[in-house]
Amino acid sequence: MTRESADHDNQMLDKRDQRLVAALQCDGRLSAERAAEVLGIGVRTVQRRWRALLESGAVRVLALPERPASLRATMLRVRVLRGRLDTITAALAARDDIPFVDVSASGDEINAVHLAEPGPRDRLVFRQLPGTQAVTAVSAAVVLHAFGEASDWRLDVLTPAERAALTPRPPVPRSQGATAADAEGLLGHLAEDARLPAAVLAARTGLPESTVRRRLARLAAGGLLRTMVAVDPRRLGFAIDANVLMRVPPGRLDSAGRALAAHPAVHGALATTGEANLHVAVWFRDLEELYGFVSRELGALGVESAETVIVGEAVKRPGVNRVTLR
Q1: Average pLDDT over the chain, rounded to whole?
Q2: pLDDT digits (tens, 9 = 90+) for 241-284
């Protein structure tokens, strides 16, 4: 890749394209006609810009698998000898039970999310990582409550009325909507491209197109067809990616977590075990914005202490390949 093409790939999306990305966050299978009607953009323009964004890989719309309620998420902080960072990072990123892997800007710490069924002492946390000579320290904090996850984040470029008009109705009870038979054979095909047309899905599954359309409608109505938009935050103007680990008094933990989950910069807010009991992931345009968030907004929520870790590299996230943040 030439430097010119790399610079083009990192070019910030204009306001219109950002609004079209935000529309897909509301509904990953949104029609161009509906987006054009709500946003006041021509249908052909919507079709052309979506096609360019999706075909270039700048934007991906993914169907999220249903996560078993029994799975337990653990936040891992792994300190590594600098010369062995890539080896440990690659090993963690290769695991199916680890959906998120970040490397700190300092280059000596890996932050990851590990999903596992509750049970005996976890082999990865208590044996494999500590037993690796390249690893100098491991800490693990179990997620007690998710106030907001990456798939819940919304780019703050739509009005409340536009967002409401583009967001599907709340799902109906499962007994009245989707079934396992509806999901079978469809969600797997939508995992990497949730906007595949019904005709393409019919060809891939061997089902009649009318059956595919009915099943898609039931999946959406029943809340099983959940989508998220994967996009490089730099294309949206966010040069700073950071994790903030806070200590909050127990009586203020819930209110602080809910308030932060609603913050436009926060794309993940979790209550955890450990000394730092509230963890948020944030995107900001520059360090000055991050400073204002830490120094003013966190204090107003009753946060007692905060540790900020700048992400230097987002190694593994849904729909996003290895990305270096400069």
Answers
A1: 88
A2: 999 999 999 999 999 999 999 999 999 999 999 999 999 999 99
pLDDT at 184: 61
Contacts of 190 (CB under 8 A, 6+ apart): 63, 196, 201, 225
- Would you place residue 181 in the very low, low, confident or very high pLDDT band (cuts 50, 70, 90)? low
Q: Which of 306, 308, 301, 266 is CA-nearest to residue 147?
A: 266
DSSP per residue over 237-288, as a string? T--EEEEEEEE--HHHHHHHHHHHHTSTTEEEEEEESSSS-EEEEEEESSHH
3-state secondary structure of 45: helix
Size of the chain in residues: 326
> How far is it, in rounded angstroms, from Cα 241 to Cα 253?
23
Which residue type is seen at 227?
Answer: T
Residue with tokens 């006041």: 40
Q: How far apart are CA 126 and CA 76, in angstroms?
A: 12
What is the Cα 113 distance to its own chain's centre? 12
- Residue 163 pLDDT exceeds 90: yes
Strand partners, 242: 282, 310
Residues 49-72 as b/e (b if ≥16 CB within 10 A, e otherwise) read bbeebeeeebbbbbbbeeeeeeee
* pLDDT at res. 288: 97
- Nearest to residue 195, comparing CAs of 321, 23, 37? 23
